[in-house]
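RECORD TYPE: inverse folding
INPUT: structure tokens
STRUCTURE:
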């Protein structure tokens, strides 16, 4: 089965309920489509030591990498507030998969779709561009 953007967004919405966000109360779910064609998910995981909190997007990418993927082709994000965007750190991590990686943001009736290159211009990379 081919995974489309709406499947990916639905996976992000579904997993969001598993977020561990007792401090902020703000849950985020993410789903990535990896180069193996499979979907991997992540949620934000907060900690009593706030600075150790990790984001849904980075946790989803980590799950894909742990399964043997080096790149993801798309990342869907669904937060408790419509239009929740990936933070700067997550943009940098998503960018590792390439400037054309698609970012799908849950924004109500119509999702917003970007390329990571739009969301992180002039990024830090070791590649020549
Ligand atoms: Zn983040």
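DESIGNED SEQUENCE:
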């Amino acid at each position: 089965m081919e995974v489309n953007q709406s499947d990916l967004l639905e996976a992000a919405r579904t997993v969001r309920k598993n977020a561990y966000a007792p401090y902020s109360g703000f849950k985020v779910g993410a789903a990535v489509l990896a180069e193996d064609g499979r979907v991997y998910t992540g949620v934000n995981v907060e900690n009593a030591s706030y600075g150790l909190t990790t984001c849904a997007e980075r946790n989803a990418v980590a799950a894909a990498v742990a399964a043997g993927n080096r790149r993801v082709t798309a990342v869907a994000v669904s937060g408790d507030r419509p239009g929740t965007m990936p933070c700067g750190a997550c943009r940098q991590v998503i960018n590792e998969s390439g400037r054309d990686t698609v970012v799908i943001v849950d924004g109500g009736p119509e999702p917003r779709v970007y390329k990571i290159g739009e969301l992180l211009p002039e990024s830090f990379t070791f590649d020549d561009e």
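NOTES: The chain is about 25% helix and 20% strand.
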